[in-house]
Amino acid sequence: IKYRAALRSTVCDVMADRGWRETESETDWTVYWADTQWVHENYNASTLLDFQRINHFCNHYELTRKDMLVKNIKRQIRTIEKEYGKAEALQFDFVCTSYVLPAELALFQEEFRRVGGVWIMKPVGRAQGKGIFLINKLVQIQSWLKKRERAEREREEDQQPDQPYLVQRYIENPYLIGGKKFDLRIYVMVTSYTPLVVYMHRNGFCRFSNTQFSMDAKDISNMYIHATNVAIQKTAPNYDDSKGCKWLLRNFKMYVGTQQGTEAADKLFTAIEALVVRSLMSVQKVMINDRHCFEIYGYDILIDAQLKPWLLEVNASPSISAENQFDYDLKYGMLNDAFDIVDLEGR
């Protein structure tokens, strides 16, 4: 078995330890661990042999780009409500109220004037917490728009235009552990969309902020409080690299079981599994199914104080590089299990 890899990381160790041989050939490989840009620009299923496998579906962005995800879930809610009624459609209510800016600015302003509160701004196609900020006044949106328009006027011809943003109702009552906010990173693997075949790995993890949670207006710009992305938290003055800021998913389930009871913990994890499946159902009809493709998604899920899971985003390229031995062992095991499922060896 020959493998080709677009990046050096834990995945190369996994493939080498399975006895696979690395190749730099552009065509003579069994599995290609590609980056999404290569898939967008070069992937052509008709040129692949039956046995070849690649780690992305060609239009994965229907699920992994924030605005497309929201659009597809909203469409699914309308379809379900029309065919099965409102009660069934409410099962898909796991994404906070969202608008794409600047396209839906008028709709957002109308909603903000009606309900107010705190909202979070996210660029639709960036990761690791880049470009995220919170707002609690409409004037902040006006300021953002002016900066954006100024940048657009000054943009060189060969520069990419600024991405749209997703503005989303901020969850002001997250479930806290030790007074700190966290979210869940759950690894989900899809090997087929038609029929839908999906696996959820047992060893996801919680990502904690380093700072006590606060909704005080003075703390609204403090991303060490509000963002749980490791890329942000590891720049905090009090970050301890040897400890990191992660908990195994099973430790979290045990914690909820001891605090809220086993039944509540089981109900929460059943709801998380249902959220994952329903999000995939929302893109199933638009995703181009391809027998050569499999994909590992990084689901980011926030739990609120009522133990309701909310989908924050889905990552097409969840980080598989390791910060410490704990991180390495977790990701190595997850990737090794994924290759057991793909089963290139024909076991």
Tell me what the CATH architecture of the largest domain is: 2-Layer Sandwich
Q: Fill in the CATH topology of the largest domain.
A: D-amino Acid Aminotransferase, Chain A, domain 1
- The separation of the N and C termini measures 13 Å
Largest beta-sheet characterization = 6 strands, antiparallel
* Poorly predicted residue ranges: none
Oligomeric grouping of the chains: single chain
Shape: globular
User: Considering the protein shown, what is the CATH homologous superfamily of the largest domain?
Assistant: ATP-grasp fold, B domain
Contiguous helical run count? 12
Family: Belongs to the tubulin--tyrosine ligase family.
GO molecular function, one term: tubulin binding
Keywords: ATP-binding, Ligase, Nucleotide-binding
Domain ATP-grasp: 86-343
Question: How would you explain this protein's 3D organization?
Answer:
It is built from twelve helices and 14 strands. It has 347 residues and is of the alpha+beta class. It folds into three domains: 2-54, no CATH class; 61-96 and 174-342, 2-Layer Sandwich (D-amino Acid Aminotransferase, Chain A, domain 1), CATH 3.30.470.20; 97-170, Dna Ligase, domain 1. Strands 9, 10, 11, 12, 13 and 14 form a six-stranded antiparallel sheet that branches. A hairpin with a 5-residue loop joins β13 and β14 (309-315). α1 crosses α12, α4 (66-84) packs across α11 and α10 (249-260) packs across α11. It is globular, with a radius of gyration of 21 Å.
